[in-house]
Amino acid sequence: MAVLAASIFTKTGKPVISRQFKEISRGSVDSLLSAFTKLWTGGTQSGSQHTLIEDGNSRYLYQPTGDVYVVLVTSKSSNIMQDISSLRLFSQVVTQTCRNCTEQEVLDNAFELFAAFDEIIALGYRENVTLNQVRTFLAMESHEEKIHEIIARNKELEASEERKRRAKQLEIQRRELAKQKAMTARTSMASMSHHQPQYIPVRGPEVETTSGGTDFDEFDSHSQLLSGQSSFSGRPTGGSGKKGMSLGSKKTRAL
């Protein structure tokens, strides 16, 4: 009736990725995948060419693709012919997306595979699409994604330019504020220097002596008088014409 999940397994039975198409819990999906691993690796199906395993109310359809297996989990009431066609389309999508179909390559392209799986199955039912249509839808989604990336990048650039513009405005405002503060400081200093009192030295009155001169003139005349007396007293007295007695003259004549 419906496709429950589409999964990719390694050849050893290890689940790599899984996409569920119905509202089922994670625990239910894990139990379905573990049941397939036990049935496929533990029974006679592991060495046979069968691509169908049934267990309880579930049916597992699988197909080898490169180094992995593509597995569809459906209900037993589902149309098996339609499920086989869906499995073949899933395998083609995996081959187109992953060239070598290795485990690491599947993990690297997981999101692309999920997008392709969603184009094939919607709400558990097969969509009437072909491989070319799936490619077209994926290309359109990729184009739309690029457009969204361009729009997001442009928004980031606009936001960056806006931040730069605001930073420039803040820098201009900061400079203007600094200029205003400097002008205010100079104005206050000029006003303080204008109101500061100026001190002018005042010379005292000169004291006059009795002779009409100043004290300095009297001091100069007194100094000249003293210098004249000293020069007069040091001058030798002449006029007597007497010579001094020469010592040792008699002793010289006796010799």
Automatic annotation (TrEMBL):
AP complex mu/sigma subunit domain sequence ranges: 7-135
Primary site of residence: cytoplasm
Kindly list the GO CC terms recorded for this protein. Answer: COPI vesicle coat; Golgi membrane
Protein's cellular compartments = Cytoplasm; Cytoplasmic vesicle, COPI-coated vesicle membrane; Golgi apparatus membrane
- Source organism's superkingdom? Eukaryota
The cross-references to InterPro entries, in alphabetical order and at most eight, read: AP_mu_sigma_su (IPR022775), Coatomer_dsu (IPR027059), Longin-like_dom_sf (IPR011012)
Q: What topology does it adopt in the membrane?
A: Peripheral membrane protein
Q: Where is this region: Disordered?
A: 203-255
Q: Which GO terms describe its biological process?
A: endoplasmic reticulum to Golgi vesicle-mediated transport; Golgi localization; protein transport; retrograde vesicle-mediated transport, Golgi to endoplasmic reticulum
Instruction: Using the record for this protein, list the coiled-coil segments as residue ranges, or answer none.
Output: 140-180
Alphabetized, the UniProt keywords read: Coiled coil, Cytoplasm, Cytoplasmic vesicle, ER-Golgi transport, Golgi apparatus, Membrane, Protein transport, Transport
Q: Keyword ATP-binding on this protein?
A: no
Biased composition, Low complexity: where in the chain? 222-234
| Subunit structure, interactors included | Oligomeric complex that consists of at least the alpha, beta, beta', gamma, delta, epsilon and zeta subunits.
Query: Which family would the database say this protein is a member of?
Result: Belongs to the adaptor complexes medium subunit family. Delta-COP subfamily.
Give the function comment from the record. The coatomer is a cytosolic protein complex that binds to dilysine motifs and reversibly associates with Golgi non-clathrin-coated vesicles, which further mediate biosynthetic protein transport from the ER, via the Golgi up to the trans Golgi network. Coatomer complex is required for budding from Golgi membranes, and is essential for the retrograde Golgi-to-ER transport of dilysine-tagged proteins.
**UniProt protein name:** Coatomer subunit delta
